[in-house]
Amino acid sequence: MARKLGVGVIGCGNISKTYFKHAPEFKGIEMRACADINMDAAKARAKEFKLRAETVEGLLASDDIDIVVNLTIPAVHYEVSRQAIEAGKHVYSEKPFVLAIKDGLDLKKRADKKGVRIGSAPDTFLGGSHQLARHLIDTGKLGRITSGTCHVMSHGMEHWHPNPDFFFQPGGGPILDLGPYYIANLVQLIGPVARVAALSSIPAKERTILSKPRAGEKILVTTPTTILALMEFENGAVFTFNASWDVWNSGHAPMELYGEQGTIHMPDPNFFGGDLSYTRGEKPVKTLPKWDHPFSVANEKHPHGMMANYRTAGLADMALAIMQGRPHRCSLELANHVIDIMTGILKSGETKKFVEMQTTCERPEPLGPAAARGLLAPSK
Q1: Which residues form the GFO/IDH/MocA-like oxidoreductase domain (predicted)?
Q2: What is the block-wise mean pLDDT of the chain (380 residues), using blocks of 10 residues?
Q3: Cis peptide before 327 (omega within 30 of 0)
Q4: Residue 197: in which H helix or E strand, if any?
Q5: Within a 10 A sphere around the Cβ of 106, how many other Cβ atoms?
Q6: How far apart are CA 353 and CA 360, in angstroms?
Q7: Calpha distance 183→341 (Å, rounded)
Q8: Distance between CA 153 and CA 186 in Å, rounded?
Q9: Within 13 Å, how many C-alpha atoms sit on residue 109's CB side?
Q10: pTM value?
């Protein structure tokens, strides 16, 4: 069994820095090259992290690249992943995996034919807080989960992002941009979704960019920015999922799960860590102590303090799974089901009808403390 698989990154924007920074912390992977349609961007990242800069075509033809990490913009995720598969490479994509379920199903057929694997972010559900919630559910501490709520609410990205246009066009919006974190976590906690329904709106048809260098420019909003969704899971649990970029302030918890025996108040699934609160029956709600899980440990500075950031864990788990001949957790089946759910929500918002899911999936294997430590490279 090879000790490490060679990784090449296509797309050298902001998120690429996170992958390059954290990759050395994990077993099974070695960053070797990067590429971008902007060769200057590829060269800058290559110099920063002591990698090889390639053209996209050159990277796909490289014999030392086993896995291509697709960090391009969502609109070209499908095309870039397809090219990597046709080149015989395994693929790990940033979220959203694709923008239409037909594209995800097509990639599955191509990957099966080529004998390669596909994985996709988000991997934040592998974090210590979310895996502790999984442990509480799996050990029956809450009884059967019957319902719950999710809320992701803010006032959009135009006040801080230098080029926020794509957030407000088809392929953007809070469901496709932030929904993967919430929905992937729900699926790993509870299981697959059977059908969805939603109401959606575009309260502000135009937005003003407030960030430099384009402050004052107007952008048109052509995708829903407020979505109120219902999800019915295959096991009978029912959830509300409210996502909006038209809210200045909210007191809702990011996620709450209601079981027959108790309730979990969960932290933001966009992050690996955070406080997890729990109550059983009528007992007072208490914040649980941090689990002895390596992905609970704060390891990175954040504007609001130290945080746990282990992005690249999903990529490392896929690489080790390939070498060990086991399923990987951030799987193609999970990614496709999440896309099915999200696009179903958007379709329901347009049609005002329930939408049945075309796909299903197994819950990924839990990642307990020992399994998580097994992903990490020995400390230097």
Answers
A1: 130-264
A2: 87 95 97 97 98 98 98 95 98 97 98 98 98 97 97 92 89 94 98 98 96 94 97 98 96 96 96 94 91 93 87 98 98 98 98 98 98 89
A3: no
A4: strand 193-201
A5: 16
A6: 20
A7: 8
A8: 18
A9: 6
A10: 0.96
